[in-house]
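Quiz preparation item.
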């Protein structure tokens, strides 16, 4: 619970910093395509995840620091999916988390902008099909996002890449299965300024 409080305090701090300049509030949604890391099962070699589609929903603030540079903290609920093919079966792995990317962006040519920054993540739940998992090692992790987008009036579309930087695993109760819980994904998002 302490981590959730810290997570929301960071978002609030970014909000206060952004309010000193021109601020836009909005909503966003999109699809995530990628995977988490490898699965390790006792007596079985490591298996890499197959890419699967997930989704995200959230809100953002965009504060203009100058005419061309902005700070954009986002708060979103994200579901990541991965699938692991084993000898005689397939296991689906789902992670539900709160993401707080804090992006610094710059307009480069007309409506086109590029951005990047840290992505703070709080893992709410993990689920490996037919396997009882314990808690992940670290519920609060850090990643990196960077990408590009286009802004047309109140509408924005962007594409970005995210990679989890903090090593983090989920283990089965008997510790015979370990799953890398770091995201490695391509994210396509649409947002609307309100």
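Solution:
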């Amino acid at each position: 619970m302490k981590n959730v409080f810290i997570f929301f305090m960071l978002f609030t701090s970014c909000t206060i910093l952004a309010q000193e300049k021109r601020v836009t509030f909005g909503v966003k949604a999109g699809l995530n395509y990628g995977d988490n890391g490898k699965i390790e099962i006792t007596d079985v070699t490591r298996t890499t995840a197959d890419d699967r589609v997930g989704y995200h929903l959230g809100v953002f603030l965009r504060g203009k620091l100058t005419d061309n540079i902005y700070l954009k903290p986002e708060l979103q609920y994200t579901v990541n999916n991965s699938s692991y093919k084993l000898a005689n079966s397939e296991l689906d792995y789902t992670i539900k988390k709160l993401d707080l990317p804090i992006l610094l962006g710059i307009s480069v040519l007309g409506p086109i902008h590029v951005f990047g920054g840290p992505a703070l993540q709080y893992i709410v739940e993990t689920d490996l099909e037919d396997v009882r998992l314990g808690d992940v090692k670290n519920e609060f992790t850090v990643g990196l996002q960077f990408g590009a987008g286009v802004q047309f009036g109140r509408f924005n579309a962007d594409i970005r890449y995210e990679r989890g930087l903090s090593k983090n695993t989920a283990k089965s109760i008997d510790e015979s299965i370990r799953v890398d819980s770091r995201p490695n994904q391509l994210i396509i998002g649409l947002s609307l300024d309100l």
